[in-house]
Write a structure and sequence with these properties.
By secondary structure, this protein is α+β, with helices and mostly antiparallel strands. Among the domains are: 112 residues, Alpha-Beta Plaits, CATH 3.30.70; 357 residues, no CATH class. Helices cover 55% and strands 8% of the residues. The strands form five sheets. It has a four-stranded antiparallel beta sheet with strand order 4-7-3-8, with helices on one face. A two-stranded antiparallel sheet has the order 1-2. A hairpin with a 6-residue loop joins β9 and β10. 19% of the residues are buried. The N terminus and C terminus are likely disordered. It is a multi-pass membrane protein. Belongs to the V-ATPase 116 kDa subunit family. It is found in: Membrane.
């Protein structure tokens, strides 16, 4: 017999065999949100009771051992794992749960079971004793679950409708919030007055907009109904103002090219004005082709005519870059058409618009008849009637048929590149003079700009003179006795012992004079400015300036005081960079010749390998083959010659402006004036800033 706990009054316990042979039937019903465990015992015992509930998965084993030890085996525990994890109402954590049902005998064991359930934080639920009550509760729970599902679905549908309606105006709300955050961000930068009733803001404003600013303050005070009107006062300051350069849609792209190098200082010469012409022109020198330039011009013209189209403003990044630089592309294409006419190059072919100036029949006279078996006809311009005059525009188209075409074009383009480069750099040095005049540093003109110009012109300006002089003086008849410009330029520095013919009489004396001027300009460039500032610092007066001016004192050597060693090292470094840069920068302009040659040769290769092959096929299959050949030629022309070669020429033109041109006069150490504007919401007033 199984002994009962003390104090229990119950019917006599059945034999152990009868207890072990009890017939049990279990029915487990599990729902997603609520769980009900119904177990129907058909026991021979009459006084059994039940406790049901939920327990954490990790506590099941310890819970079962505690029940067995405390209740001494007078309990029957059954577990079942829930299909879905549930959220713990105390911790909010989603964990696995087990539903349990405990069957026990006696009230004392029932109290112990309930205390153990409380100790293990079980969620206990009432469990009916009869099958009818259990069935009724099950049906009620199913009805509640179905009602909850219905309510949840209707709530989700309603929320979805509300969110869809709110999404229609969410963009405008986001813009409004960003504008408010931007305004408060600006207000936080203001300071209070002594009464803590007004905000004081110190801002930079262009002089031309002071009237508009004052009128806007008055209008804002009037419309807001403020008791204290807003007013504006100009404050004198010694701080350097930021740089404001007003642009439009045409000049904005060129100004961005300059700003990428550095924002100009206040009142400094802005190179963007000259870049509008020089940049597309230098690009066109490297990209000179009438056909390619015309295609680029049409593409840019299409963007300009459709610039108000909303899809272009919202296009992808690459297309947006083309759109923002549409006016740069327009001028680059237009200038490329011009240089293409000068080179007489249209898709690697020449165009005979005015008729060639060379006459072939004059070479077939009795005295100048070509050899019988010669496959090459040599046109000698010294023969009367062969060369009848220069081509009206550009290079004569007959050079496209000549075997020495590259030799002629290389000589022409190389000299042209040197001339353009020296003129471009000299113009940059001259622009530096205007900076010195504006900032009232006239001593820089005499001690820096003039020596720089003498150094540049006495060497490289003289080189241009020799090139132009040889073009003008020597004709076709005297071309064989014309001296080499390269040899004459080298002899200028080597002082050869033997006399040379030279380009003109007295050439040796002129060259020696130029070298003397160059040699004298170098020490002035190195030491002139430092020694003058030292002289001025010691109390001297020169060039209309004196040490008595405090503002000029700060302007010359800063608030930290005069430091002769620092000034001397700065000027020496600048002078060495300029003198060596004149040589390297002049050689750098030869990229104009190199890229022009590469572009012409690539264009010629495409024509020879594609179109020329298609044109040589007979008429039977020629038309069928020519169509795909032309299509392939167009695709390769666009991707290789227009995009890749165009990008290469674009980058080289930027380098020539930044390194060779702008460093002669442009410092680019200023601060850009960025006024408050709602257009900057996406970049300046982001979530992190505001």
């Amino acid at each position: 017999d199984i002994p009962l706990p003390e104090g229990e009054t119950s019917p006599p316990a059945p034999p152990l065999k009868q207890v072990l042979e009890m017939q049990c039937s279990f029915l487990l019903l599990t729902q997603s949100d609520n769980s009900l465990l119904s177990i129907d015992y058909s026991l021979s015992l009459l006084s059994h009771r039940f406790v049901s509930g939920l327990i954490n998965q990790g506590k099941v084993e310890a819970f079962e051992k505690m029940l067995w030890r405390v209740c001494k085996g007078y309990t029957i525990v059954t577990y079942a794992e829930l299909d879905e994890p549930l959220e713990d109402p105390e911790t909010g954590e989603v964990i696995k749960w087990y539903v349990f049902l405990i069957s026990f005998w006696g009230e004392q064991i029932g109290h112990k079971v309930k205390k153990i359930c409380d100790c293990y934080h079980c969620h206990v639920y009432p469990y009916p004793n009869t099958a009818e009550e259990r069935k009724e509760i099950q049906e009620g729970l199913n009805t509640r679950i179905q009602d909850l599902y219905t309510v949840l679905h209707k709530t989700e549908d309603y929320l979805r409708q509300v969110l869809c309606k709110a999404a229609e105006s969410v963009y405008s709300h986001v813009i409004q919030v960003k504008k408010m955050k931007a305004i408060y961000h600006m207000l936080n930068m203001c300071s209070f007055d002594v009464t803590n009733k007004c905000l004081i803001a110190e801002v930079w404003c262009p002089e031309a907009d002071l009237h508009d600013l004052r009128r806007a303050l008055e209008q804002g005070s009037r419309e807001s109904g403020a008791t204290i009107p807003s007013f504006m006062n100009t404050i004198p300051t010694k701080e350097t103002p930021p740089t404001l350069i007003r642009t439009n849609k045409f000049t904005e792209g060129f100004q961005n090219i300059v700003d990428a190098y550095g924002v100009g200082s206040y009142r400094e010469v802005n190179p963007a004005l000259f870049t509008i012409i020089t940049f597309p022109f230098l690009f066109a020198v490297m990209f000179g082709d009438f056909g390619h330039g015309f295609v680029m011009f049409l593409f840019a013209l299409l963007l300009v005519l459709n610039e108000n189209h909303p899809r272009l403003n919202q296009s992808q990044e690459i297309m947006r870059m083309f759109f923002n630089g549409r006016y740069i592309l327009l001028l680059m294409g237009l200038f490329s058409v011009y240089t293409g006419l000068i080179y007489n190059d249209c898709f690697s072919k020449s165009v005979n618009l005015f008729g060639s100036g060379w006459n072939v029949s004059a070479m077939y006279s009795s005295s100048h008849a070509p050899a019988e078996h010669s496959r090459v006809l040599q046109l000698d311009p010294s023969v009367p009637g062969v060369f009848q005059g220069p081509y009206p525009l550009g290079i004569d188209p007959i050079w496209n048929l000549a075997t020495n075409r590259l030799t002629f074009l290389n000589s022409f383009k190389m000299k042209m590149s040197v001339i353009l480069g020296i003129i471009h750099m000299t113009f940059g040095v001259i622009l530096g003079i205007f900076n010195h005049l504006h900032f009232r540093k006239k001593f820089n003109i005499y001690l820096v700009s003039v020596p720089e110009l003498l150094f540049m012109l006495c060497i490289f300006g003289y080189l241009i003179f020799m090139i132009v002089y040889k073009w003008l003086v020597y004709s076709a008849e005297t071309s064989r006795v014309a001296p080499s410009i390269l040899i004459e330029f080298i002899n200028m520095f080597l002082f050869p012992a033997s006399e040379t013919n030279g380009l003109y009489s007295g050439q040796e004396h002129v060259q020696r004079l130029l070298l003397v001027v160059t040699a004298l300009s170098v020490p002035v460039l190195f030491l002139g400015k430092p020694l003058f500032l030292l002289w001025l610092h010691n109390g001297r007066s020169c060039f209309g300036v004196s040490r008595v001016s405090t503002s000029l004192h700060v302007c010359l050597w800063g608030a930290s005081g005069f430091n002769f060693g620092e000034i001397l090292m700065t000027q020496v470094i600048h002078s060495i960079e300029y003198c060596l840069g004149c040589i390297s920068n002049t050689a750098s302009y030869l990229r104009l010749w190199a890229l022009s040659l590469a572009h012409a040769q690539l264009s010629d290769v495409l024509w020879t390998m594609l179109v020329r092959v298609g044109l040589r096929v007979d008429t039977t299959y020629g038309v069928l083959l020519l169509l795909p050949v032309i299509a392939l030629f167009a695709v390769l022309t666009i991707f290789i010659l227009l995009i890749m070669e165009g990008l290469s020429a674009f980058l080289h033109a930027i380098r020539l402006h930044w390194v060779e041109f702008q460093n002669k006069f442009y410092v680019g150490a200023g601060t850009k004036f960025v006024p408050f504007s709602f257009r900057l919401l996406s970049s300046k007033f982001s979530d992190d800033v505001a």
